[in-house]
Amino acid sequence: MNKILLIISREYYTRIQKKSFWIASLLTPLLITAIYAIPIWLATREAELKKIQVIDQSAYFQKDDLKSNSIQFDLVKGGDVNQYKSKLNSTDYDALVVIPKDVITNPKGLLMYAEKTLSLTLKSDIENKIQEKVRQILMKNAGIEGKVYESTQVNVEGNTMTLSNSGDEKSSNSSGVMILAGILGFLLYFTVFVYGSQVMNGVIEEKSSRIIEVIVSSVKPYQLMLGKIIGVGLVGLTQFLLWIVLTFAFSGVASQIYGDNFKEKIVQNTNTQLNNDSQKKVDQIQNDDSFDPIKVINEVAESTNIPLIIGSFLFFYLFGYLLYSSLFAAIGSAVETAAEAQQFTLPVTLPIIVSFIFAQFTIQDPDSTIAFWASIIPLTSPINMMVRLPYGVPTWELILSMFLLVLGFLGTSWISSRIYRVGILMYGKKMTWKEIGKWVFYKI
Questions:
Q1: Is 14 inside any structural domain?
Q2: Helix (H) or strand (E) holding 170
Q3: pLDDT in tens, 38-70
């Protein structure tokens, strides 16, 4: 046991002392925070004002009908279109828009001229402004008052609740739970690939440098494999803890900086697009906390069993990693170079990829038959069970999944150890699957 602990400590301290470990530990939370902070920052910036010249041949439009925060409309009643077109490139207008006489009966007859192709956003903004006025005219012609139409434009929103067996109710957040499930699944997918590959590369490096021949003279091959796997796994766990702490810290700071500004920007845009009769909608937005990531996190925390999720994550991370890393270690022992290992990694990486594909369906329907079996079979259960868990999983399914995963690890570690004990001392021979299969039954 002391020898295994010595190998574990060597693998652990060697890796956490590397600069690459600390760089990745710092940059990853910054990247996660930037994924949502940068779009919010871009949304709160003042948009560059676009100048659009509008020739109204229909005589329906007034200056007040074309108001926008991001576009300055200069309205011209009638005029020679060809004359304005010829001068367009010499002016500071971004586009020339011609509203046809029959815009009411032919709403697709709108013409837009520009020196360069208009962006999709600018094109849509122009169309929406003109479309708004055309709809008002059509409603008036149909005898529908604007206030009547406005009163019918309601948004139906449901407040999701979780109901326990004792009848207790808790508010939940479906989108937040989906995000949490996706994050948990991706972390496990990422872990198995990255740290499993580190185990394989570490074995290949020690084998190619012949250091492993010295090491196995003091410890048994199985002890060496287990110590290496656990040591690298602890490195991954340490990095996870750093990511969690730093991500929450960075996200909290970003939320404080941009949360209120983002909400204020939404309210400002809404004020310009809605009339006075819709002030109630503006007030609802001002009181809405859906723009605050911390608020969403709190709602998810209230509706989910966080200790169970954390404990289950650590369990599935540990045994899922152990299962696959033992297979990666066996591959590393059978080859002498990383390039040679590529032809043997497909059978190991394929189940990981398949489980990640299944996870996309599991997020959409966590109670489906596919989701159930994907969370029970050991090769796919670490990712898919963690994706299902935030939605709620029966206790017997969770226990069965854990039990089968432990059995799967014991089975793969036994096979891998049989391959490892032969492979680490095998040199100068081209490996095949048939040859590796024979190693399992060798008696040493």
A1: no
A2: strand 169-171
A3: 766 666 666 678 888 888 888 888 888 888 877
